[in-house]
Design a protein that fits this description.
The chain is mostly helical. It is about 55% helix and about 0% strand. It has a two-stranded antiparallel sheet. β1 and β2 form a beta hairpin.
Length: about 180
């Protein structure tokens, strides 16, 4: 919503009949709305705000509860997201419900495409890897694995174990 529209809403809120307030507004928005309302040209508008609430990000435990609750409401009786998947969802979403929903929905699609009934952290990593290929920096500051790194890591671990078995040399000590 632009500043002019917010100013028009402020003017509409001035319409009263006798002592009765004819219009009450409920604004809901992203954190950027607060930034906009704090601008000097909207000081009169922001003075009219009587109640405000800011939804804080969920913590790890709440994130898991939120995921399981949404699945239950959708009709699932099973625990689809393994605790490791909930941990990964929390890590990448920062506990923001909108991002939990987005990543969780994509994880369900990825799992369906792979014919998986349960979602673990690897599925979440695949989703995040897919989402980081575009130009939008959704997960800046987070550890994002490149596609197929899990398979490559598993192969490297097999090689490391084979070398230990055959030669007694642990390649991880040479890192």
């Amino acid at each position: 919503m632009d500043i002019q529209t917010l100013e028009e809403l402020r003017l509409l809120s001035n319409i009263n009949v006798s002592q009765d307030i004819m219009l009450q507004l409920l604004l809901v928005g992203q954190p950027e709305l607060v930034e906009k309302l704090n601008r000097p040209e909207l000081v009169q508008f922001s003075q009219r705000i009587s109640i405000e609430y800011h939804l804080q990000p969920l913590n790890y435990k709440e994130t898991g509860q939120y995921i399981h609750y949404r699945l239950k409401v959708a009709g699932s009786k099973d625990i689809i997201f393994h605790p490791s998947a909930c941990a990964a969802l929390y890590y990448y979403s920062g506990g923001i419900p909108r991002l939990i929903n987005n990543l969780g929905d994509l994880a369900l699609v990825f799992a369906f495409a792979a014919d998986k009934k349960k979602i673990n952290w690897k599925v979440i990593v695949d989703v995040v890897s897919e989402r980081t290929t575009g130009g939008i920096k959704r997960f800046e500051g987070k550890v994002c694995l490149t596609p197929n790194i899990i398979e490559r890591a598993a192969e490297a671990e097999k090689l490391r174990r084979a070398l230990i078995t055959e030669t007694g040399v642990d390649t991880s000590k040479d890192l």
